[in-house]
Design goal:
CATH class: Mainly Alpha
CATH architecture: Orthogonal Bundle
Oligomer: single chain
CATH topology: Arc Repressor Mutant, subunit A
Radius of gyration: 13 Å
Order of helices and strands: HHHEEHH
């Protein structure tokens, strides 16, 4: 069953947890790396065609004001789009914190790329 537009279900909360973890560890959050993290930590969106679903969630989270998309990278089409959590998005931490715990446990020591 398709959820109404603007809802924040489990997948969006997993994305928020991934971005929060990355930000706290000095790592960048791009659509592709978020998709890889969803696969690694939560075993969802396992096929290559599923990456478009991640971008759809990122777009909705941005429209809801929970994420900011770094617009400065659009000048160079070879650059990726960086996502960060807004203050409004941080207010959802109680909802995404169970997923953040999973990401932290699975991530091991922080690595900078």
């Amino acid at each position: 069953m398709v959820k109404p537009k603007g809802t924040t279900g489990a997948t969006k909360m997993k994305i928020m947890a991934i971005i929060d973890h990355n930000c706290g560890n000095g790592l960048d959050s791009y659509g592709y790396t978020i998709w890889q993290s969803l696969q690694n930590h939560f075993h969802i969106y396992l096929t290559g065609s599923d990456v478009r679903n991640v971008y759809h969630h990122l777009k909705e989270l941005t429209e809801l004001g929970y994420l900011i998309r770094d617009e400065s990278l659009f000048e160079d089409p070879t650059k990726r789009c960086l996502y960060t959590i807004t203050e409004n998005g941080r207010r959802l931490e109680n909802r995404y914190s169970p997923y953040l715990d999973i990401v932290r446990r699975n991530a091991g020591p922080a690595r900078k790329y």
